Amino acid sequence: MLLLIGPDRRDRSFWAPTETSFKRTFLSSLRDGLRPGFFLISPDFRHLARMGWRFLTLLVLLAAFMTLLMKHPWWTAGGAGALVFLLCTRLNLADHVITAAARDQERERLLDFLEERLRWMRGHCDEIVIIAHSQGGFLAHQLMARHGGRNQSKVIRLMGVGSGLKPIWFLQQIRRPLVGAVAWMLPIASLCLAWGTSPLIEPSNSQVAAAMLMQLKATTPTLALPLAVQSPEFVTAMLHDMAQSMERTQSSLLLVGDMPWERWTAIVVSTMLTIACGLIVRFRIHPEAKAPFALPTPSDSKPLEWEEYSSQHDAVGRMLLPTLPQNVEQEATPVLGHPLGDHTNYFDNNGLLSRRLAAMLLADVDSPTRASLITQRWSETVARYERALRKQHDRRRCFQAVLILWVASAVLIPRIARGATIVEAVIGSWQPLAVATVALSAIFTWRGRKSHRKLVAMLDTELRGEPQPMPPINIVAPEHRTSATLALAIGAVFAFFGALELSLLSALQPAWNVHSFGAAMLAAFILAALAAATGSGYRVRRRWVAGAGFLACLPALTSSGPLNSRAPVWATAPGGPLAAAVLVAVAIALIGLTRARVVPLPEVASSQSLVVPSQRGAANSIATLEAERR
Questions:
Q1: Which of 301, 359, 534, 573 has an alpha carbon within 20 to 30 A of 553's alpha carbon?
Q2: Structure confidence by residue, pLDDT tens digits, 549-585
Q3: CA 343, 98, 96: angle at the middle one, nearest 5?
Q4: Nearest-angstrom CA–CA distance, 462 and 610
């Protein structure tokens, strides 16, 4: 649960104490994230949305488990028992983590073995660099902290990659009775609060959703019906229905369901458990957990350089809390954007971490009198491409999240309007949500790997000193996305509901020859995708927007309205108002896209050429340096 919904590296700016205290940082980020008009460009709003999505995921998982337990109790109990038995055996990968976290004797034997090997290296090497991955990061840290830091002799650098230092430390703390009690009390308090306060939230959500659908039902016929048949009585009835929907929305904001004594009891229990957990953490756990990862400084040698690397999505290394000493955690390393794949692909041939380690190796063997290796330029070049990959990764993930939001809104709002709770709506619609999530994840993961390989190939070309093509990534500046995104989203909504009304009109009025309403529906999907892409920072081609606008106009161009009407042709065409509304939205979007400023990535290097020696040349330089030392 902690790895799933807990804060990670993406939430650093939201949780890390940039103000004078953690409380001020949290309140400042919360205020900035909720400011009107900043929901597209403020990173704090994305943090809030991510936290809400995680909490909803936790509720859905717990609700699904309870539903399965109620319907199939024996199968659920048997599956849970088998899982617990598997975790208690040596047939699973988690056993290695259990060894480091709970089996003190086996862990000490491992450390003795590593200490013996380190002693041998000190006798044969002048300087030692330790690179530790996953659980090895925890063991290497324990090794450097042993005997007051005596093992740090000749060790100039410790580098943890996807380190299990924080997760294993957390599992060790769970063995303490107070920490274990808090770990169980908080989920129980969350469940009690969610169940107890659901009557305060769910009726309001259902009524608001129903009012939204009522308003759409009142306004969307104006998009499909020809202007010639929209009489004053029709407009009056539409305005009356809109007023009723607005009144229903206002009255439902403070709507509260029945609150029996069981609900109040659950809220009181949740409050008491939360207060108890806060007091235990404040006065018993927090004072003992200050600086848990600080390494002792040996008296006979200088302190080693300690650096920790992890991707934003690595399920092991992405944990944000507890914090490491200052300047230990480095910027997120771009890998693939997969919780499990990232953890095992740091040293892949297309990984940037190996190229950063190569720069550090060159810096270690470089001589002040030799400038042939130019390690600083190498490091700067790798850093530029890392920044480009991080920006590209954030843009791609935002695009995927907005597309999933479109699908979730279309699937969940009708169920919520019929009275279902949010959790019930998600569980009842799990099939389309699962298909959409898996399909989009597969597409974006494939695309991410392809673009990652392309940028790494460009990096290698630049490191070899060969001519570079134009920067392949063009990201629209955040301040230039809002108008185009909103216009495209509004146009997508108009096109979607207008297409639905045109399909109903074709069935109710067959003599009007309503055609091509499928083109309007296709335009809605295209505009929704373009709105998601624009809001994420992609540079959308203007001809795609214009093409979607043309598709929305096809029903008005190919259909015919009342035959005996004396009104102009444009006033008798079904879908004419829809075409006008979509064209206005498209025009606003085109203006915004034309004025948008594009930032090319990676940044253009300085005029000084970067010429990195070949493998043979680097080996010869290292051999020459060793001869000079002798």
A1: 534
A2: 999 988 888 877 666 656 666 677 788 888 889 999 9
A3: 50
A4: 7
